[in-house]
Design goal:
- The chain is mostly helical.
- Helix content is 62%, strand content 1%.
- It is built from nine helices and two strands.
- Strands 1-2 form a two-stranded antiparallel ribbon.
- The longest helix has 85 residues.
- It starts with 13 loop residues before the first helix and ends in a 42-residue tail after the last helix.
Length: 319
């Protein structure tokens, strides 16, 4: 759930949580209003049915009135005789059973259950953590408890004030600065000239030492770079010479193979044409594969020439 907390569509953002709670509250109010309307409609329907029954059954009303009169007479007799009047005798005897529930008792039970579930930690609302549900704060949210020393007037004294003032760089600089005004001279002591001289000499020596170190380091790095360049140049020249020799041998071999192929193809075409004309076949020359091929002498015209073995100007025209 904490992959993209900055996206507007994320369900755990404050705006979305507030919107969900607002929608839940609105839905609860609408449901409450709907239930109230249903209860009112049911009540009106019951009243209508009772009125219809009263109109249709008048004798029942007479009997009910007689019962009420009898109960009133019993109460009057008990009052005259001085007996205790019990208004809940019907409930105690079981003649009358009420389906109504104690709303306060149900509410207290529900609150106790919710409190226990929140303490356990498995009842949390949307966007609510355990600390918010229990009304607690984590240890890293609370400031540390320190034992502060108090003065006679009751003011808190800062801890380690002397060491902080002693190590304060501004107080150290004030020792070496001259007083600019009378007020400053009265508050800040005048610097010692010997201390100023020693301090300046120390700074000068440190600067010279750092400069000499930088120069030595720079000279050393330049020397190493030159040495590397020389070694690279010498190694590259030797490698280039070896590569040239290998390339030259490969080219000579390929050239000889090409000449042999051309010669064999030429002899084959001549034999085919002679056969068509009716002439005798020409004699085949023995292959010179075992013989060493002549190497053309090369004289490089320029010292730094790219692919000198391919340049025509480096070979003698007689070959």
């Amino acid at each position: 759930m904490n992959i993209l907390p900055k996206k507007r569509w994320h369900v755990r953002t404050r705006e979305n949580i507030a919107r969900v709670r607002r929608d839940e509250k609105k839905a609860a109010e609408e449901e409450k209003e709907r239930l109230r309307k249903i209860a009112l409609a049911e009540q009106e329907a019951r009243i209508d049915t009772l009125r219809q029954k009263v109109k249709n059954r008048l004798p029942e009303t007479d009997s009910q009135a007689q019962k009420d009169e009898a109960s009133n007479r019993e109460i009057q007799e008990k009052l005259r005789s001085g007996e205790h009047v019990n208004f809940f005798s019907d409930l105690e005897t079981g003649k009358y059973q009420s389906d109504a529930q104690n709303a306060e008792h149900i509410k207290e039970k529900k609150e106790e259950k919710e409190k226990y579930e929140k303490q356990v930690g498995y009842l949390t609302y949307l966007g609510q953590d355990t600390n918010e549900a229990l009304g607690k704060r984590s240890w890293y949210d609370e400031p540390p408890k320190r034992e502060d020393t108090l003065t006679e007037g009751g003011k808190i004294v800062e801890k380690g004030l002397k060491t902080k003032m002693y190590n304060d760089p501004l107080n150290v600089m004030k020792k070496f600065l001259a007083a600019g005004s009378s007020k400053a001279s009265s508050s800040v002591p005048t610097p010692n000239p010997t201390l100023l001289k020693t301090y300046e000499s120390m700074i000068q020596a440190y600067r010279e030492k750092s400069k000499s170190r930088k120069k030595a380091k720079k000279h050393k790095s330049e020397k190493k770079k030159k040495k590397r360049k020389r070694s690279r140049k010498s190694s590259s020249e030797s490698e280039n010479e070896a590569e040239r020799q290998v390339k030259r041998a490969k080219l000579e071999k390929l050239r000889a193979e090409r000449l042999e192929r051309e010669k064999a193809e030429r002899q084959r075409t001549e034999a085919f044409l002679a056969k068509l004309r009716g002439d005798p076949e020409p004699k085949k020359e023995p292959a010179k594969s075992d013989k060493e091929l002549p190497v053309r002498p090369m004289k490089q015209k320029y010292n730094s020439q790219f692919n000198p073995e391919l340049a025509k100007q480096n070979y003698d025209r007689r070959y």
